[in-house]
Structures are given as C-alpha cells and as structure tokens.
From TrEMBL:
Residues 4-329 form the D-isomer specific 2-hydroxyacid dehydrogenase catalytic domain. Belongs to the D-isomer specific 2-hydroxyacid dehydrogenase family. It comes from Bifidobacterium polysaccharolyticum. Residues 113-298 form the D-isomer specific 2-hydroxyacid dehydrogenase NAD-binding domain. It holds the Pfam family 2-Hacid_dh_C. This is D-2-hydroxyacid dehydrogenase. Keywords: NAD, Oxidoreductase. It comes from the Bacteria. Transmembrane segments: none annotated.
C-alpha cells in the first residue's frame, strides 16, 4: 500500500486526513514534528511527504536524504514555499508543490476584521477602557464605503479581498502585473506609487520572493497617507519591520495590522506563556494600541484546513502515480 508521512500535523487536521486516507485507500501517518535534519530519517520507508511549517529548510543534505529514501516530491500544504531550498530540491529530483488557494475567503475575512477594528479605533478604545477612560477624543471613524482600499497582489486572495470591500461600497484599486478581466467591475489597476498615494487601506497579498522582500520599506511607508492603515496577511518579510515601527512611532501612517512578521518561526502557533519572546519588534508592535497583531491565523478556518489537507494529499497521489500536479511551483 502507498504510504505518506505528514509532518507538523495539528489535532484539528486529523479528521480530514483520516477521511482522505480511507477514501483513497492510502496509508497516511502523521507526526507533530517539523521536517528538519533531526527528523528527516522519519520519512524512510514512506513513498510521499507533506509538510507545513515556518522553519526554513536550507540544508542541501536534507534533500539528498529525501532522494536517498526514494522520495520524488516535497509537498507543502501551505501557500508560501520560500522555506524550501529550490536549487537543492531540483538537484535531487524533487517536485515541489504548494496549495495556492485553499480558501481565499479565509484570509480576506480576517483582513476585513482587522480593517474594521483599525478604522473604528477599537484597539485604542480598549486601551483607554482598561484604564477606565471612556472619552471619545480621537476615536471618530471614517465609514468604510468612503475609503479607498489598495491591494498589492490581486491574485486569488487579493481578488477575494477586493470583492468584499467593493461589496461594502469602497473604491478598490490594485497593483498587479496580471490584469484580470473578471475584476473589471471590481477594481482599477494602478501603478504602485499611485496606490500608495491614494489608498486609505494598503493590504498586501503577494508571494515572498526576491522582488517582494521588503517591498513595503521606509520609502513606501513614507509615500502613504498619514491617515492610512497597512495590512500584512501575506508573508512577514514583505514588510520591513523596523521601518514599519518607525512609521508608526512618527505617525507617518495611522496604524497597521499584521498576521505575519519577520522572525515569527518558533513563536506563532506556540504557547510561550511565562517565557521571554525573542522578537523585540513583535513586542513593540503588540504594545501599540493602533496595531492589530494575530499569530498567522488568516488561513485558519474549517474550510481552509480541510482544503489544505485534501489538495496536498491529492498532489502527492498524482505525482506518485506519474502525473503532473497543477500546483508545481518550480
């Protein structure tokens, strides 16, 4: 019987995994460990592998081990594949796949929630209430239909974000090299400088690569309106974190919401109660009442979890049977 090992499996994924395994007559075993040099030997004897983690996999030896064990693929049940050493994967004949669209609405709905909290100044109101200050000064909000939402990266997730805000009456603009005709009644495409200058909400939905690393830097933040808010529910390093903190402290922008941040590996999804978190930038942002922080949970809905499990396992099955996955990233 074909066998697959899934790394970094959470309890909430087990029901979907077991249902898929039974329906496809394939053995699927799981571990809560990340893949790494100290756990790669666990894959020995299996036909396929699925991972989901924040920790990077740079070591060429790890990919050599996977090849030695007869693996043909390395499947991620997440969208971001920047953790993979693509050159080492290629050199060892490993097909890398991801899940590019598990549930675009899951992320877009989190963005909506973050935007509404920021626009209505709910974080600042809560901070005052904690001190029994119930004054209104500075809490007057704009109505969302009067705002312009700028989307950087209007792919599957960005398109879902665009449709939600357009339905609420907002003006929506986007910057993306691909202009999708199906979005003609939803948004207008503009260049990046124009988007940064015009948008009241700037929300990022691009993949992380060499062209988007620190795309939102000091210059980009300076180009935004002082009344604008930044949302990052994509990948942490797309935003230059020290530059973001500086922009917030100097009031170059009005606030921000981050679901992902540089250096989140080993922090987000972990219970670090009673310990010192090794990310001072994160601690600084958490202390700001005009900043919303969530621990990379944009994807975390019931529909998305099931889709991530099913799509990734079908990709493994397809490759093991000699087919080509439509989700191959290289």
């Amino acid at each position: 019987m074909t066998s697959i090992l899934m790394y970094s499996v959470r309890p909430d994924e087990q029901e979907a995994i077991q249902a898929w395994a039974q329906a496809n007559d394939i053995q699927v075993d799981t571990t809560d460990h990340d893949l790494g040099m100290n756990t790669v030997d666990m894959i020995k004897g299996y036909d396929g592998i699925v991972i989901q983690q924040h920790a990077a996999l740079p070591e060429p030896e790890l990919y050599q081990r996977l090849k030695e064990y007869g693996l043909k693929q390395l499947t991620l049940r997440i969208t971001g594949y920047d953790i993979v050493n693509m050159q080492a994967a290629r050199e060892n004949g490993l097909v890398v796949t991801n899940v590019p669209a598990y549930s675009p609405r899951s992320v877009s709905e989190l963005v909506l929630a973050q935007v509404m909290r920021l626009v209505r100044h709910l974080g600042e109101a809560s901070a005052r209430e904690a001190k029994d200050d119930y004054t209104w000064d500075g809490l007057q909000a704009h109505e969302i239909h009067n705002l312009t939402v700028g989307i950087i990266g209007a792919g599957k997730i960005g398109s879902a974000v665009a449709r939600i805000f357009r339905a609420l009456g907002s003006t929506v603009i986007a910057n993306d090299p691909v202009h999708r005709p199906e979005l003609a009644d939803t948004l207008d495409y503009v260049d990046l400088p124009t988007l940064l200058k015009r948008a009241d909400i700037v929300t990022v939905h691009t993949p992380l690569d060499e062209t988007t690393h620190h795309l939102i830097n000091a210059q980009a933040l300076e180009a935004m309106k002082p009344s604008a808010f930044l949302i990052n529910a994509a990948r942490g390093p797309i935003v230059d974190t020290p530059a973001l903190i500086e922009a917030l402290q100097t009031k170059s922008i009005a606030g921000a919401a981050i679901d992902t941040i540089e250096g989140e590996a080993g922090i987000f999804e972990k219970d670090l109660s009673g310990t010192k978190v090794d990310n001072q930038a994160l601690e600084t942002l958490k202390a700001m009442p005009n900043v919303e922080v969530s621990p990379h949970i944009g994807f975390y809905t019931d529909a998305a979890v099931t889709a991530m499990v099913n799509i990734s396992l079908y990709d493994v099955k397809t490759i093991l049977e000699g087919g080509t996955s439509e989700h191959q990233v290289d």
